[in-house]
């Protein structure tokens, strides 16, 4: 028989054993649900994270909620692409399918394999340069503006300037629409004016030039079209201005060598003759009839002939009656010491050197005519009037082998004898001095000489303009003197009373409204000879202007 104490111990051991077995049985009970998702842990494919739907996409026994099938660090439940690792979860079109496994990332209904821009919606698939990359995701010219938003995709133009608001940036705009600005109340738009309307303005940016210089004009005898030739620091631009409100920038002939401020152009027999002060530039000859049918405008042209009979020249002068060109402002240390060089251009593409004249000062500019003025001693002779820095030289250049000085004349307060032009009857010569306004002060000074007797020219009178601006180039048409007056624009002077020494300003157009001071800004040249009476203005700062009398 057991003692009482032994009995109690035995009972205690049995109770402890029962409790231990019960505890073990409780851990394995089917009712345990750690994540409280209604699925017992023993059958839950993700017992630590609630996933009542027990989704297991890859059937590996681990629920998507805590499975990472593609090992990209994103659980399947949150992963927008279970089959391919994509830790960034990029979903361009926001359709819930990651780009790495989406066959239409931009949701534009075009499969990525066929889409020329798979990450940006572009149902039209526009590809302007046909390189296989859609405009909406390409920046062809590297200007920081995508082609789809760029108004000039082939030429960098981060400013997107579009002067005529036609949607084509100035940098590559060939057809330039412009609404006439009538001169009213003393202004044409922002430009001061008197009796002249603004028909066209094309800024330098269109021509990819930094500054403007000379200009001339050409009328195509076959079509009647009118073209402006605009000199630039880096070439010469050709613009169809037959309809100034719908001008067409046809193209550009680049400089023969380097860029420089000075360039000059004249026309003879449907050819442009272009010189420059750029080193070794020579004379470019360009057949203007090539402008009649040009595709892919604006086009970059090459010269038809490159004449290298001289290096640099300030200007080119042509006597269309004789078929001779005269290069002036050439090398001061050359054979003719900067005097005019004679070039036979009767066959424009085959210029011939026929000597020169160097017995007077360096010749900056000139006019050459077949004389038909009042001095009968020289009727029919080829006469050169040279503006030679400190004087005017009158030279008979009929015999190229034996040119002869007829006379010279100077005047008071010489700054720089720059350029001049005969009146229509060749009786008077109107001269501009380029530095007198700066050197001596006062208003624009225009000098009148009486050339009735070429052997004995005389000073006639002086006209003082309405501003202090410097005068540059001037030309006569009928009874009007058209003066390129730098910051004062162009001024039109009536010559009706020139015989009494009187000129009268009858109109103007100021392309440089910010100042009329004596500085080298504003208008370089004016061309008034079109039958349409449209006037070409080339402005150093502003580009090309076309104006017309009201």
Walk me through this protein's architecture.
- It contains 2 helices and 32 strands.
- By secondary structure, it is mainly beta.
- It is 5% helix and 31% strand.
- A hairpin with a 2-residue loop joins strand 6 and strand 7 (235-240).
- It is elongated.
- It has a domain at 170-549: Methylamine Dehydrogenase, Chain H (7 Propeller), CATH 2.130.10.
- The longest helix is centred in the N-terminal third of the chain and has 24 residues, at 4-27.
- Strands 1, 5, 6, 7, 8 and 12 form a 6-stranded mixed sheet that branches. A 6-stranded antiparallel sheet has the order 2-3-29-28-27-26, with no helix packed on it.
Highlighted features:
single chain, about 550 residues, mainly beta, Methylamine Dehydrogenase, Chain H, six-stranded mixed sheet, six-stranded antiparallel sheet, 2 helices, disordered N terminus
């Amino acid at each position: 028989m057991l003692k009482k104490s032994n009995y109690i111990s035995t009972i205690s051991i049995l109770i402890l054993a029962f409790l231990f077995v019960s505890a073990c049985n409780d851990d394995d009970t089917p009712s345990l649900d750690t994540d409280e998702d209604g699925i017992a842990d023993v059958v839950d494919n993700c017992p630590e994270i609630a996933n009542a739907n027990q989704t297991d996409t890859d059937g590996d026994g681990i629920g998507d909620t805590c499975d990472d099938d593609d090992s990209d660090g994103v659980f399947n439940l949150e992963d927008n692409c279970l089959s391919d690792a994509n830790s960034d979860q990029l979903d361009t079109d926001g359709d819930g399918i990651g780009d790495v496994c989406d066959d239409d990332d931009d949701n534009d209904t075009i499969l990525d394999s066929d889409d020329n821009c798979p990450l940006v919606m572009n149902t039209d698939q526009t590809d302007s340069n046909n390189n296989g990359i859609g405009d909406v995701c390409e920046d062809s010219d590297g200007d920081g503006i995508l082609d789809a938003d760029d108004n000039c995709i082939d030429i960098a133009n981060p400013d997107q300037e579009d002067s005529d608001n036609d949607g084509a940036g100035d940098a590559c705009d060939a057809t330039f629409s412009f609404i006439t600005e009538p001169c009213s109340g003393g202004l044409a738009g922002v430009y001061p004016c008197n009796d002249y309307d603004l028909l066209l303005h094309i800024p330098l940016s269109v021509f990819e030039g930094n500054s403007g210089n000379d200009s001339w004009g050409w009328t195509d005898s076959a079509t009647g079209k009118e073209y402006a030739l605009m000199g630039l620091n880096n070439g010469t631009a050709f613009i169809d201005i037959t309809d100034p409100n719908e001008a067409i920038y046809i193209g550009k002939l680049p400089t023969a060598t380097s860029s420089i401020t000075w360039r000059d152009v004249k026309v003879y027999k449907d050819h442009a003759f272009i010189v420059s002060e750029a080193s070794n530039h020579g004379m470019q000859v360009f057949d203007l009839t090539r402008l009649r049918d040009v595709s892919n405008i604006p086009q970059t042209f090459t010269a038809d002939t490159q004449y290298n009979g001289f290096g640099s020249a300030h200007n080119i002068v042509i006597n269309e009656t004789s078929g001779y060109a005269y290069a002036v402002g050439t090398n001061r240390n050359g054979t003719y010491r900067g005097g005019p060089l004679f070039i036979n251009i009767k066959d424009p593409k085959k210029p011939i050197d026929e000597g020169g004249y160097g017995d007077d000062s360096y010749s900056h500019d000139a006019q050459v005519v077949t004389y038909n003025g009042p001095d009968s001693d020289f009727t029919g002779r080829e006469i050169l009037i040279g503006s030679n820095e400190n004087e005017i030289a009158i030279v008979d250049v009929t015999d190229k082998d034996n040119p002869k000085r007829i006379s010279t004349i100077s005047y008071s307060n010489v700054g720089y004898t720059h350029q001049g032009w005969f009146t229509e009857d060749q009786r008077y010569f109107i001269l501009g001095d380029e530095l007198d306004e700066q050197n001596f002060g006062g208003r624009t000074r225009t000098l009148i000489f009486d050339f009735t007797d070429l052997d004995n020219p005389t000073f006639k009178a002086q006209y003082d303009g309405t501003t202090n601006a410097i005068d540059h180039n001037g030309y006569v048409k009928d009874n009007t003197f058209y003066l390129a007056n730098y910051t004062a624009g162009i001024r039109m002077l009536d010559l009706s009373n020139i015989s009494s020494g009187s000129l009268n300003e009858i109109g103007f157009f100021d392309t440089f409204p910010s100042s009329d001071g004596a500085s080298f800004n504003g208008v370089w040249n004016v061309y008034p000879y079109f039958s349409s009476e449209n006037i070409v203005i080339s402005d150093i700062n502003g580009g090309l202007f076309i104006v017309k009398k009201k």
